[in-house]
Design brief:
7-stranded antiparallel β-sheet; ATP binding; nuclease; alpha+beta; DNA recombination; 8-stranded antiparallel β-barrel; ATP-binding; exonuclease activity; OB fold (Dihydrolipoamide Acetyltransferase, E2P)
Length: 817
């Protein structure tokens, strides 16, 4: 008898391919539902590999046309060798010469539930089952046929059963509608050409923006020059060409020759994306020359480098891969004879070599675009920017008198917008030639004012000799680094920007930035061993974790103040041995508040984090996570909230979690209770229900338990109210146990001690449907979300709700006596 996975191993050389090796299935496995995965595989022919977990392996079928939601379409499924369970997470490229050479993505995954004994049904060749996946759901069947295939491979049919999830193929093709990976959003294979859309071309289009990073990430990325120019979108509609800045201002009249060159392409309705650039004598971008060209009206010197085509010749290409969009754009430009239009080529070299070469040529940096990514009208992690030096825009708030023979002004005072207003960011006094000094001074004088526009006054030394101006003009500056005081160092002026409003200028922070490593953070807390790695996965250091908490202190402190806190400490990093600390004990945590000993008799004092100093003092002592009680210390016996922790079987897809959250919120709505949602930073979601301080711990916990039991009774196939992995197989455990006295829940905006350092983040009800996972935001990405928020996602949170008898009655339960 052949050993398990022997055929799988025989076909592969694991010193060449990155596919997981086929070790023998283990005898022990954690209790979990049976998993399924469908991988889209671009080998000799594009096909879909359908895999079901059984007996510690993935039973596998190759489905050439992929699954269909139409029960009338019986899709051929060729039975192939078993694969190891680890293959269910495999995405990547199988090298040429290896079995199945080509690209692989995870098209769908989740759990499968056999309707009968799966072993007997599989042996009989008639498997009936339900799928709970990100894309596929409902009832399905795999049926063995008597058809002869190549070699000895069995021919089966994959059939969708008639149920509410079934849809006619004429109405909906899920293969075409959802082509990308559920893990990475990557795509493989050439997408089917889509019919031209009859809808009118959008009148306006917001461009995709890149996220600043401090190093090139792993993965498949394409890199281009970061042009030192003005971002410009071209709209071609009914033969008319209009050119718009990134903020939607029409600059067609300023760029008549470029518009004429685009018109000559004779494109149908299109939106093209690119950068307007002036080149110096060496053929390199020169921002000052570009500014001069606009000032003098010499648009003949401006070249339009095009790098994307969200719409082209009447077709919406935004869901196409970046490679396909760029290929169609390049083909459209091939017939152009104008020197004013150029295609932005991507580089084939290693990204580190590309970046180093760009910096050696004194370029601004490079732009990376994730292979397979779509075009989105927002700032996206699929586009990244690496800058050779720190460089960004600043609001000009004043200038100093010139010294010696210099005319115009001496230096410009710079500022950025923060949560309180305009914050001083230093000054720049170099990078100006005589023409720039004269031109900028002429633009400054009409905006002079008598008082400072800054939120906080400068020292008398900093303000000496300053002429204040209205915060209207924007200048671009390159500099060596940010100081710990938030000022630029070794700054040089690049040029004025007229394409960005002053109100949008903020302190740009690269993800996982490591440029500033002081030993103290804003509160003055000394951080020992600042370079100690807290998380090997992201490379985050202790100093960076402290800086993160310092930066978000105003967001997290409202959820920590006045409550007993428990600390998850990881002095040796999260790969060490973290431990939980509920009491102050003998270890002195800097600035922490010790609570009244009567709150927890017989133990050392409970603790509270009430200031930024206490927050960072805890981080200095190795704290990563902050957990709080459901009551405040002044009324410790009457909770002011309860939490329902939706804890899924790990095999369930994220879609099942979102559906569970919506169902639970519907029950809470029916009870008349307003709930607030946050990601756990782990596997699930937390639903937080604020309460008036009236009922005791036993009553509140019993009420949370009644909700959990009600959900489990109404939908036993989805929920369980009983803890333990064996009880949640294929289900979601509604954990109400953390509502007992002395129990705690991870606080909103707390980091979690998990690879990548995800954060527990509040979200609005409107955002829930778009969540991609419980670990969507991390230490590296949370600031970008916070800076982009227009309103607090938990606006309206108030502790006024009371548990009523009517609520108990609706749940069919009674309060404890």
């Amino acid at each position: 008898m052949a050993k398990p996975l022997s055929e799988y191993n025989r076909k592969r050389d694991f010193e060449i391919t990155t596919e997981p090796s086929g070790a023998a299935p283990g005898s022990k496995r954690k209790a979990s539902a049976l998993s399924f995965v469908i991988q889209k595989h671009d080998a000799r022919n594009l096909h879909y590999d359908f895999r079901l977990e059984l007996d510690g392996v993935l039973k596998s079928w190759a489905v050439p046309k992929g699954p269909s939601l139409d029960p009338s379409q019986k899709r051929l499924a060729v039975h192939v060798e078993d694969h190891p369970l680890g293959y269910g997470n495999f995405e990547g490229s199988i090298p040429a010469g290896q079995y199945g050479a080509g690209d692989v993505i995870v098209w769908d995954r989740g759990v499968w539930q056999p309707h009968d004994d799966p072993h007997k049904a599989y042996a009989a060749g008639k498997l009936k089952f339900s799928l709970i996946g990100e894309k596929l759901s409902g009832d399905w069947a795999l049926v063995r046929t008597r058809l002869k295939g190549s070699g000895d491979k069995e021919q089966w049919l994959l059939i969708k059963e008639k149920d509410p999830q079934a849809r006619p193929a004429a109405d909906y093709d899920i293969i075409e509608a959802e082509p990308n990976s559920v893990i990475s959003d990557a795509s493989v294979g050439k997408p089917k050409p889509r019919a031209k859309k009859t809808a009118a071309l959008p009148a306006q289009l917001t461009p995709q923006l890149a996220t600043l990073v401090d190093r090139a990430p792993e993965g498949d990325w394409n890199y281009e020059i970061k042009f030192d120019g003005y971002r410009m979108l071209a709209r071609i509609r009914d033969g008319e060409v209009r050119l718009f800045t990134r903020n939607g201002h029409d600059w067609t009249d300023r760029l008549p020759r470029q518009a004429k060159a685009l018109h000559a392409l004779k494109l149908q309705d299109s939106w093209l994306d690119g950068e307007m650039v002036s080149l110096n004598s060496d053929g390199l971008p020169d921002f000052q020359a570009l500014q001069n060209a606009f000032d003098t009206g010499r648009s003949l010197d401006i070249v339009y480098y095009l790098f994307d085509a969200p719409f082209l010749n009447g077709r919406d290409q935004r869901e196409d891969t970046v490679e396909d969009r760029r290929a169609s754009l390049k083909a459209a430009l091939a017939g152009s004879k104008s020197k004013l239009l150029r295609f932005s080529e991507a580089f084939a070299a290693n990204q580190r070599d590309i970046f180093e070469s760009a910096c050696n040529l004194a370029l601004e940096g490079v732009i990376g675009k994730r292979a397979g990514s779509p075009y989105v009208s927002s700032r996206s992690a699929d586009w990244i920017k690496l800058k050779c030096r720190f460089r960004q825009e600043f609001v000009i708030v004043g200038y100093t008198r010139p010294q010696g023979s210099r005319s115009g002004f001496g230096a410009l005072l710079l500022a950025v917008n923060d949560d309180t207003g305009l914050a001083y960011a230093g000054r720049v006094g170099t990078g100006f030639d005589q023409a720039a000094l004269k031109n900028i001074y002429a633009k400054l004088t009409p905006f002079e004012r008598k008082t400072s526009p800054l939120e906080k006054p400068l020292t008398s030394a900093q303000a000496r000799g300053v002429h204040w101006v209205e915060p209207t003009l924007v200048g671009e500056v390159q500099f060596a680094e940010w100081t710990r005081e938030g000022l630029v160092r070794q700054a040089a002026f690049v040029g004025l920007r007229t394409d960005k409003p002053a109100t949008q200028i903020i302190h740009e922070q690269p993800r996982t930035a490591k440029s500033v490593k002081p030993k103290t953070v804003g509160s003055g807390v000394n951080i020992s061993h600042p370079d100690r790695i807290i998380d090997k996965h992201s490379g985050t250091q202790k100093q960076q974790l402290a800086q993160f908490y310092d930066d978000i202190s105003e967001w997290i402190l409202p959820f920590l103040r006045h409550r007993p806190v428990s600390l998850l400490r990881a002095p040796e990093g999260i790969d060490g041995e973290p431990f939980f600390q509920k009491h102050s004990e003998r270890l002195a945590i800097p600035h922490i508040k010790q609570l009244d000993p009567r709150l927890d008799p017989g133990h050392a004092r409970l603790m509270e984090i009430h200031t930024t100093g206490a927050l960072l003092g805890a981080v200095q002592m190795g704290t990563v996570e902050f957990h709080t009680w459901g009551a405040t210390s002044d009324k410790i016996e009457t909770p002011d909230l309860f939490v329902l922790d939706l804890d899924p079987d790990p095999a369930l897809p994220w879609k099942a979690m979102l559906e569970a959250a919506q169902l639970t919120l519907s029950v809470l709505d029916e009870l008349g209770l307003q709930a607030f949602v946050k990601t756990s930073g782990g596997k699930g979601l937390h639903l937080v229900v604020p309460l008036a301080r009236r009922d005791d711990w036993d009553t509140v916990k019993a009420f949370a338990k009644a909700i959990a039991q009600f959900m489990a009774q109404q939908l036993p196939e989805r929920f369980t109210a009983t803890s333990g992995p064996k009880n949640r197989v294929g289900k979601i455990f509604i954990d109400y146990l953390r509502n007992a006295r002395g129990a705690s829940t991870v606080a909103a905006y707390s980091v979690r001690a998990r690879p990548g350092l995800p954060v527990s983040v509040p979200v609005s009800r409107e955002e829930l449907e778009g969540l991609r996972g419980a670990q969507q935001w991390t230490v590296a990405t949370l600031q970008q979300r916070l800076q982009g928020l227009k309103t607090d996602p938990w606006a309206g949170y108030a502790n006024r709700q009371k548990i009523s008898k009517k609520m108990w009655d609706k749940l069919g339960a009674h309060p404890p006596k």
